[in-house]
Amino acid sequence: MRSIVILLFVILGYTSAQAQKWQPGNFTDVKGNREAGLIRVNPPGKGPIKNEGFIEFKENEKANPYKLSTSDVQSFVAGRDSFVVAHAPNNESWSKEETDFVKVVLDEPTKLYMAKGGKNGGGSGIGISPGVGVGYGSGGYGGGLGGGLGITLGGGGRNGGSTTYYYGANTADMERLTDQNFEDIMTEIMGDEPEVVEKIHAHQFNLKNIDKLIAYFNEKAAAQKK
């Protein structure tokens, strides 16, 4: 049990550090104005508007940060990653945010989006929520660890530790990528790369290793541009 408690403290320390990370980037507001600076994708605390995902922005290292809700921006870039505002698709719901940010993984005519678990769509994949304790239990023995920081590992919800992929021409039309539609949808998205499509049809890729498929596709696409 002691080793588990120590491990939890290590994970909490790591996730807390990740949540504090500022990255160079920019955002485009709802009027189309673009502003560059530093962005924190998965900030702690509550957002300015209930049921909306949010980020933090500051013009430079010395400037005071302020929060931007999904009602304030159309999209933002943090580091190498691009994010856009999205509503949960019609056939599902996101437990905490009615609108949130999703990452644009592949910017093709049919786009591939990714929503990670955590407070925001652009979160670290390990959910951090202030004011919630951490608990552990196994079989007939359980232990609890109180604290002001909650951690979520794994889980299938929008705000759990899982990663969900969506596809569509835009976020208004996006639908969930599943095991059942994976081959057809990824063939459509990656149709310009025959070698990639061939491996998809040969079932060398699926949802469980989609990150490897995306890397392979990007590698082939980059080679074509040289």
Oligomer: single chain
Low-confidence stretches: 4-16, 118-160
Shape: globular
CATH architecture of the largest domain: Roll
Measured as a percent range, the helix fraction is: 10-25%
Q: For the terminal residues, how far apart are their CA atoms?
A: 54 Å
Instruction: Estimate the mean pLDDT confidence.
Output: 78
Largest sheet, strands/sense/barrel: 10 strands, antiparallel
Biggest sheet: strands side by side, in what order? 4-3-2-1-5-6-7-8-13-14
Instruction: Figure out the total of helices.
Output: 4
Query: What is the string of SSEs from the N terminus onward?
Result: HEEEEEEEEEEEEEEHHH
- CATH-assigned fold name of the largest domain: SH3 type barrels
Task: Assess the beta-strand content as a share of residues.
Answer: 25-35%
Strand tally is: 14
Rg for CA atoms = 19 Å
Structural class, from secondary structure content?
Answer: alpha+beta
